[in-house]
Amino acid sequence: MKKLKHEAELVRQALTVGAAYFEKRGAGKFEATDSASNKVTAVYRLLVQDGLIQPLAKDQENEPNMKHKLALWIERQLPDNHPLKNG
Question: Most exposed residue of 4, 7, 32, 63, measured as fewest CB within 10 angstroms of its CB?
Fold first, then answer.
């Protein structure tokens, strides 16, 4: 797995967009006290369930890989001229 140039920023962006999707989808609402790890897992699993991203292999389902998947997902959603795009 090759790390993306702006992966940390992409993950933050993915969690922001993912949290909004999570709430609109009716899956729940994140609280300020929820850990980033819990948010990553919840958003990842919802996106997999809805068929928006491919699931990781069961033995690869860990937080760094989930973050990477979320970063790839949000990068594809960004416009071509966005500063976080690897280009």
Answer: 32
Q: Are 87 and 19 in contact (CB under 8 A)?
A: no
Pairwise CA distance, residues 87 & 72, whole Å: 13
Amino acid at 80: D
Tally the residues of the chain.
Answer: 87
Residue 87 resides in a domain: no
Mutual orientation of helices 63-77 and 7-24 as an angle, nearest 10°? 80
Q: Which residue has the higher pLDDT, 79 or 8?
A: 8
pLDDT, tens digit, 9 for 90 and up, residues 5-55 = 788 899 999 999 988 988 888 888 888 888 888 889 999 999 999 999 999
Asked whether residue 41 is domain-assigned, the answer is yes
CA–CA distance, 66 with 10 (Å, rounded to integer): 12
Structure tokens at 39: 């948010």
What three-state secondary structure class fits 19? Answer: helix
